[in-house]
Hints:
The complex is a heterodimer of chains A (about 140) and B (about 500).
Chain A: H1 4-26, H2 35-53, H3 55-61, H4 64-88, H5 114-141
Chain B: H1 5-26, H2 28-55, E1 59-62, E2 73-76, H3 78-100, H4 108-130, H5 134-152, H6 160-189, H7 194-207, H8 209-227, H9 235-242, H10 245-271, H11 273-278, H12 281-301, H13 306-326, H14 330-361, H15 372-375, H16 377-391, H17 397-411, H18 416-441, H19 458-476, H20 479-491
Antiparallel strand pairs in B: 1-2
Helix pairs in contact in B: 1-2, 1-4, 2-3, 3-4, 3-10, 3-14, 3-19, 4-5, 5-6, 5-10, 6-7, 6-8, 6-9, 7-8, 7-10, 8-10, 9-10, 9-13, 10-13, 10-14, 12-13, 12-18, 13-14, 14-16, 14-17, 14-19, 14-20, 16-18, 16-19, 17-19
Amino acid sequence: MNDTIVKSITRLVIPFVQVYGIFIILNGHVSPGGGFSGGALLGTSLILYTLVFGAIKAKHKFSHKASEIAESGGILIFVTVGLIAIFVGMPFLTNLAAGFPAGSAGAILSAGMIPIIMIGIGIKVASTMITLFHKLIEEVIQ
Amino acid sequence: MISQLPIINLVALLLMAIMVPFIKKISFRATLWLGGILLIGVLVSSVFIFIHVANVGDIIYHFGDYESFLGIEFKVDPFASLFTLFVGTLAFIIYVYSSGDKTEGIESPEFSRYYVLYFLMLFAMFGILYSNDLFNTYVFIEIISLTSCAIISIKRKKEPYPAAFRYVLLNEIGSLSFLFGIAMLYMISGHLNIDLLANTIQSGWTTLPINIIFAIVFMTVGLSLKAAIFPFHIWLPDAHASAPSTSSAILSAVVVKIYILVLIKLILKVFGVELFASLGMDTVLLIFGGAGMIMGSIFAMTQKDLKRMLGYSSVSQIGYIVVGLALMSDLGLRSAFFHIISHGLTKAALFLSVGIVIYLKKSRSVKGFEGLGFQIPIAMTVFGIAAFSMIGIPLTSGFIAKWNLGIAVESASQYIFLGVIVISSLLNAMYYLPILFAAFLKDNPEHQEKVSIEKIPAAMLLPIVVLGLSILLIGIYPNLLMQLIDLVIARL
């Protein structure tokens, strides 16, 4: 797409979308939102980049290797947080009873492990969306 | 500690699946060894779980320490632990085989992907058996359908794509009808937990019977579609034939059975036998099963492709299991459980030994077995044992399975099914025996001088020898397994 207006607007919009996505991920336990919706926003911002600037340039921004790491990393965060509870002797994914700090209600650092898990989900969802989109585009190009 | 083992099994399988892309960069052999060790660990812990569950009592596991009406619950009873043991054992045997089998289409770039999918699929199967929550079961079912679709089409050739596409379409219809059934049940009870749901079914039957009728019909049909019970079997032969041998083995021997186990869980634990039978669904299943026993064998006879033939043979064997289940008696259930395990071993042995034949001949035709019994004696002997087990010749596990089904059918006075069992066995003999005759009794006219023992990798031979021996072992000492099955039924 070789349109100056689209390109400059995209350049302008993407940072805001991404910041909003991160905001939604981090505030998932305080306000409506969470890892999935925030991750979807992050993913869409990169999909927008791919649409406007082309697949080759987007590959530089977010390579196949990076997506591989991000995807496995997202699950790893989730599982390790869950496993901490097992080491304490509680059932898998136990929250406050397993010794996660409660924090003050309403702050970002509260609700024990929920923010950490949300970050994991956010990374996973964002990278999955981008990978799926890139795969589809690759098939079309070939 | 032992109550944590089920979740540790699950997490170990999941972690292995996501770690494969990373470890394979260091060394692929190391990945294979790690996966094997991990599967042995999972097996050992499954044995421990089974012993604990059989002697002490069910393991009830609440995720995140929430009450069962709020959170997700795992319930490991003898049923779950026996069948996870079955899944784990077969998965390990097939894993060893696949680690030696780099020949049949799966090339090295796809190899790591294959193991990611394999471990994810195992993870989902263990999850289905452990889970005591209907929606969780649905999620695991979806994981199985997606991974098995990818495993069918892993070869990146044109041929498996239509089969995989048909597989995924029909399986999605199956999953969605299952989900619809869950929604209907949730509407009357407000629970997804199987135990809590079972308590409210009776009161729901008086207030909203239409919901329960819809739920029973949709869930039964959805699971039948996924388990390839006779009129819904059209996707199975193509899908199982075009996949690589190791994938067909796990799909046909284990994955299809999982859906039948879910159906059994639903009928016995959620709806209850009386309600299910009062709607006449047992007759429906009985007819489906009986028709499948005959029609599957008839379709199999006409096949020219060896693996399609085995696929149709699976359809007919699933018919036996369904008939055992549809009798709705302890004897019938006993024969169904025995047949699930016996057919799992037998079909895995058949697909894996056929894998060696394909490795040697590079073709999947039913023809051209002449003299093969002398070129690959071990593989063809195992094929012979497994074929005898399919036909139901004494000393093999298939005979005991059919014998028990016969007893169950007789005590339920459905005498017509005794005839169906005999006819189906004869039909089985009609398509397995010619292959064996050709392999062992005929000479190969083309390579008269070339009839020598071929070298096959040990990693491919060892698993099928173990499978062949276990078919014989269970056939000669069926009580080893029957005791466990009786325990399962007593505690179900």
